[in-house]
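2024-03-11 09:14:02 INFO receiving multi-entity request
2024-03-11 09:14:02 INFO entity count = two
2024-03-11 09:14:03 INFO echoing inputs for audit
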Amino acid sequence: MPSNQDSKPLLLWLQGLTCNGNTHSFLNLENLQQLLDKFELMYHPSLFSERDFNSISSCQTSCNILIFEGTYDPLMKRNGVLISEMLHFYAKGADIIIAVGSCASFGGLFKATSPERNSGLIFSEDQKEGPLLAYKDKLINLSGCPVHPEWIGYTLNMIAAKKEIQLDELHRPIELYSNLAHHGCTRNEYFEWKIDSDDFGLKEGCLYYKQGCRAPMTHASCNKILWNEVSSKTRVGTPCFGCTEPDFPRSKLFSTKTNMSIPEDVPLGVPKRSYLTLTGIAKTFHIKRLEGKLIDYKKTD
Amino acid sequence: MTKQERRTTIISVALKLFSEKGFYITTIPDIAEKVGMSVGNFYNYFTSKDVLAKELVIFISEYLGENIRQINESDISTQKKIYEIVSMYFNMADEKPEMIEYFLRVYLSNREVFSDGCEGMICVSPFVTEMMMFFNDGVQCGDLYDQDFFSAFGLFMGYLGGMVFLFGEKILPEPLENYKESISQNIYNALKSR
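2024-03-11 09:21:47 INFO inference complete, emitting structure
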């Protein structure tokens, strides 16, 4: 173990098959430097680091916290060294391993390119399968495409403070992933009264019925911890794609799968029969205020 | 007789009178007399004729819903489910004609009675929800063609309602029983995957 009680934890950020989306997200963290000051950054591909990649790929030292971004591809090499070899070497000595993004967590987008070969670190979609299964007890998944920078910040701050992070069955921090993306959505009144949004980018209407929104079935705090502190997909009129879930990416992200006009997937934990009963009754009523542009509504009309 | 049993008796009697004599002609004294209770006591059960009218729709809807739910939850093909729903509906028309008659001749023909508190899906929700479940499951398992819900619902229930109407008017040359097979087949042919 490289650290002693007085030194900062050694942090290493490695990449598999990735678009760098999680790195970009991380660089947008509001108090990035303040967070990094709590660690000794051994290596990050986009930040000034203590070591260069030659030193990292030679696998001669170890780290306390291993962050892995991207899908695991057993045949992939960086600097002529198999990612698999580096991953196993650093994982063995690390106290904590963090898979950032849905690719590292569940396989994600780059699993789709080679579904039989590629995977996440301990999950292949929702199946426990991956190169680091032996280290699953010290592995945290931060899924998302990309992961929210604040979620990385929360996790690293908790680690720096030596606080316990409780995880769900997919190894995601409960504090961040017990909420649904639906929670805090500004369109909830439209969801209650089952009023659809006819297009993207509109302020009015719910995106669940036609536009493919997965927020009621997706564990994410995007509408609670806002992006760039101001917004979210649903707030600007784009459906949630369910990017934090193991089945991401699904096909036809911009349309809701229905069976005879009935959504195939209903809000998490709600029996379909109960949901349809509620929907049918809610649709009986016509709330004039919610049927047009909000700014045009006048009580006296 | 318990209060619940008395309530059920009122519902049963009212269904018969409304469907035989019509909604407006039937009075609360008529119902109370047939049940064998005072008019004053009747109001302990239903506060008005309109309230009773809505309760009857809910009663029928729950009856239909419960029966269709059992069919939906049985491990049979969609084609067989169609037959079972048709069969249940025709049996009901045969054995409890007042329920279908009330639905067709009172509920659908006197919308003004049901416009406040019983509009849209409110009173018929148990029944329509089960039909939604039936169509959803049928499409999901690949047996039925994915189309607009009301296009399919209208085809299914409109067909059955029409046949029961012809039966009630004594126009059908054969008993309803004899039409179950062919009508089920027609509905399946119209809705099945293409």
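2024-03-11 09:21:48 INFO post-check: The first helix of chain B runs from residue 3 to 21.
2024-03-11 09:21:48 INFO post-check: The mean pLDDT of chain B is 94.
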